[in-house]
Amino acid sequence: MARPYRSVLYIPAANARAMEKARGLAADAIIFDLEDAVAPDAKPAARAALAEALAQDYGPRARIVRINALTSAWGEDDARACADLPADAVLIPKVDGPADLDRVAALIPDTPLWAMMETPLGMLNAAAIAAHPRLQGMVMGTNDLAKELGSRTRPDRLPMMAALGLCLLAAKAHGIVIVDGVFNAFKDEDGLRAECEQGRDMGFDGKTLIHPAQLDIANAAFAPTEDEIALARRQIEAFEAAGAQGQGVAVVDGRIVENLHVDTARQTLDRARAIAELAQ
Ligand SMILES: CC(C)(COP(=O)(O)OP(=O)(O)OC[C@H]1O[C@@H](n2cnc3c(N)ncnc32)[C@H](O)[C@@H]1OP(=O)(O)O)[C@@H](O)C(=O)NCCC(=O)NCCSC(=O)C[C@H](O)C(=O)O
Ligand SMILES: [Mg+2]
């Protein structure tokens, strides 16, 4: 992962004030939303406001534009507009299969594509979607998915686990970014922290967010802790020392360290370094 995606903040493209504010927020990435957060009557104005906003400097924050589906009245105009915008990725909603990506790819020749994973068919086709040559990221759309499944919202997210796991496997198999869904109760800090930690434990790269108050919690949850960084350094040192003695296994804190653990340790240090670079 060349850049961190711990915190990925949605901003309605109809909200010029919020788009301006985001230039100073601690978000690793921003999703400028033309889809669900923008009312039908406001879509053309939001597209124009987005073009103005993207002319501004967003620093190191990745700029992702979520268009409307091509099956909607606005999707094709959104996609054509995106072809000329300085966006780092275009996010396609409600992707059911690779053909949905092909259609957008034909309208946007250069910009990397990301997919919203939020339909039952999308879950069943996750591997084929992740394998698409233009796809670089997946975003879980847990609100739409819950609607489609008729599932209930639970703190442990048990009804979502099969879907989260399928998409995670698909993204990891193809080496693309995957970001967890939103936590709707944006004033519930403990609830958000618990859900971020669950997503981090599962292997997600970060979490999508709906309010600036959620940024610090996600940034902390998806960054390596000081203890993890220190352990990674000790594992690498111990493994190198063992190697110098002709041994392929070291022991740190009573646990074995083999070359695969050293790979993980190096990834932890790379991640910490990339996060530190963002802050400079
Ligand atoms: C949820 C909100 C409507 C709340 O807005 P508001 O009442 O204005 O909040 P505050 O007064 O607390 O705002 C304080 C300041 O922060 C700025 N702000 C608020 N939200 C954002 C934001 N997302 N990005 C940047 N800045 C933001 C306000 O402008 C205030 O600034 P200031 O004027 O300086 O005081 C609102 O937060 C909101 O609209 N959030 C985004 C909602 C959204 O994008 N929804 C769609 C994405 S979620 C989704 O679709 C999931 C997926 O598809 C699925 O299926 O699961
Ligand atoms: Mg959705």
From TrEMBL:
<dbReference type="InterPro" id="IPR011206">
    <property type="entry name" value="Citrate_lyase_beta/mcl1/mcl2"/>
</dbReference>
<dbReference type="InterPro" id="IPR005000">
    <property type="entry name" value="Aldolase/citrate-lyase_domain"/>
</dbReference>
<feature type="binding site">
    <location>
        <position position="118"/>
    </location>
    <ligand>
        <name>Mg(2+)</name>
    </ligand>
</feature>
<dbReference type="InterPro" id="IPR040442">
    <property type="entry name" value="Pyrv_kinase-like_dom_sf"/>
</dbReference>
<dbReference type="GO" id="GO:0000287">
    <property type="term" value="F:magnesium ion binding"/>
</dbReference>
<keyword id="KW-0479">Metal-binding</keyword>
<comment type="similarity">
    <text>Belongs to the HpcH/HpaI aldolase family.</text>
</comment>
<feature type="binding site">
    <location>
        <position position="118"/>
    </location>
    <ligand>
        <name>substrate</name>
    </ligand>
</feature>
<feature type="binding site">
    <location>
        <position position="144"/>
    </location>
    <ligand>
        <name>Mg(2+)</name>
    </ligand>
</feature>
<dbReference type="GO" id="GO:0016829">
    <property type="term" value="F:lyase activity"/>
</dbReference>
<dbReference type="Pfam" id="PF03328">
    <property type="entry name" value="HpcH_HpaI"/>
</dbReference>
<dbReference type="GO" id="GO:0006107">
    <property type="term" value="P:oxaloacetate metabolic process"/>
</dbReference>
<keyword id="KW-0460">Magnesium</keyword>
<keyword id="KW-0456">Lyase</keyword>
<dbReference type="InterPro" id="IPR015813">
    <property type="entry name" value="Pyrv/PenolPyrv_kinase-like_dom"/>
</dbReference>
<feature type="binding site">
    <location>
        <position position="66"/>
    </location>
    <ligand>
        <name>substrate</name>
    </ligand>
</feature>
<protein>
    <submittedName>
        <fullName>CoA ester lyase</fullName>
    </submittedName>
</protein>
<feature type="domain" description="HpcH/HpaI aldolase/citrate lyase">
    <location>
        <begin position="6"/>
        <end position="212"/>
    </location>
</feature>
